[in-house]
Amino acid sequence: MRLRTLTALVGALGLTLVTGCAQGGSAGSSANTVTYWLWDANQLPAYQACAKGFAKENPGVKVKITQLGWSDYWTKLTAGFIAGTQPDVFTDHIQKFGQFADLQVLEPLDDLGIKNDDYQPGLAASWIGQDGHRYGAPKDWDTVALFYNQKMAKDAGVTAEQFKSLSWNPKDGGTFEKAIAHLTVDKNGKRGDEPGFDKNNVKVYGLATQGGGMGDGQTQWSPFTGSAGWSYTEKARWGTEYQYDSKTFQSTIDWYFGLAKKGYMAPFSDYNIQSNQGITQFAAGKAAAVFDGAWMISTYYGTKGIDAGTALTPAGPTGKRATMMNGLADSISKASDNKENARKWVAYLASDACQTVVGQAGVVFPATPAGTEAATAAYKKKGIDVTAFTEPVADKKNFRTFSYPITNYAADVTALMQPAMEDIYGNGKPVSSLDETNDQINLILDQ
User: Which family is this sequence assigned to (predicted)?
Assistant: First the structure.
């Protein structure tokens, strides 16, 4: 039954089943070696340093780290669960966690003593399954902000203070749409808010495209739907009814993708997840601004020839600004033959001893407050102001932070929402078509 269900998951994720030995898998590893997988190459050096610290505290125990690209990572991990070549410990994503827990491929971590108050708000609680068991130890967190090209902004007369005070609404787009329109320039030098602007021949878009956003819209539309007061499901975790049929959601999506119709946001055809993401458009000078996550801070500020700045997400109809606050965790494979040392490694990963080291690398924000402080200081040393990412976590009065939708059948939701959103964005399909998609999703969740 488990093999059949896992094979179904491979199909739902659109993966190719790979049998045989996956690189770095737990199969054949010795009892004194813990195998650990992660996908972010930028974080690899920091975790190699953590592995050295762990080895000093646990003489005779080593950690073998394997780094794989995002797509390969999930392909090999899922195949590894089937073939028995999975790692002992791996970096887990909240969007995958629900399905992995349901398939019983994760080891409960209740005995690690993870406490909510030891981490940034909400991070620890997100990794409790429907059965009440913990399946992940908090690792790091991220929020979303607006990156912008400071030279382009200066040329357009849009100041940093204006970026900080942007607001939007689904009727006329507010000051956010005005700013994006003014930052847009066609091939004749006309700005998006000037008479004679040619929306079909744009040289620089005010806003880069990050694609259709599938079912979560993390770096696309979620700052807007969140600040409009909308939620993915009827409750924060383990909801059973998605709400893509909501008028609030659909009016926001209609306005957001409408920016492309007006020529202010790059069209869907400009986006490619492999070769032309928002950062690529931004780096090429084809877009003046782009929404992206905290994990990309060093990349934007390290882009040659561009002086990047950041701004808070715009305030919405609720009066608040909003951002998804995603948190990764470390999980143990249930089929691991080395659970005792795997538990020691996960506990070390979740401790200040490791998270402070990771924070000092200035690549991500670790989950513990001490780790976050270390990261903030590291960015400051580099001359990078990360307030746009940290302020939403600290100021609950003016900001709304929310999680990825945590439900069962996440892969099925993505499989249905990705083409639906792409049809609306790229082919002009009406947003009301989401009513049917939402019904299909909720029918699956009702199984």
Answer: Belongs to the bacterial solute-binding protein 1 family.
* Residues 6 or more apart whose Cβ sits within 8 Å of residue 384: 297, 298, 301, 362
CA-closest candidate to residue 266, choices 313, 223, 203: 203
The predicted model gives 248-264 an average pLDDT of 98
Q: What is the pTM of this model?
A: 0.91
pLDDT digits (tens, 9 = 90+) for 259-308: 999 999 999 999 998 899 999 999 999 999 999 999 999 999 999 999 99
Cα-only R_g, the chain? 22
One DSSP character per residue, 163-230 reads HHT-B--TTT-HHHHHHHHHH-EETTS-BTTSTT--TTSEEEBSB------TTT-TTTTHHHHHHTT-
- How far, in Å, CA of 327 to CA of 343, rounded? 20
Q: Could you tell me the pLDDT band of residue 9, with boundaries at 50, 70 and 90?
A: low
Q: Which helix (H) or strand (E) holds 12?
A: helix 2-12
Cross-strand bridge partners of residue 330:
91, 137
Give the pair of three-digit tokens for residue 359: 């924070």
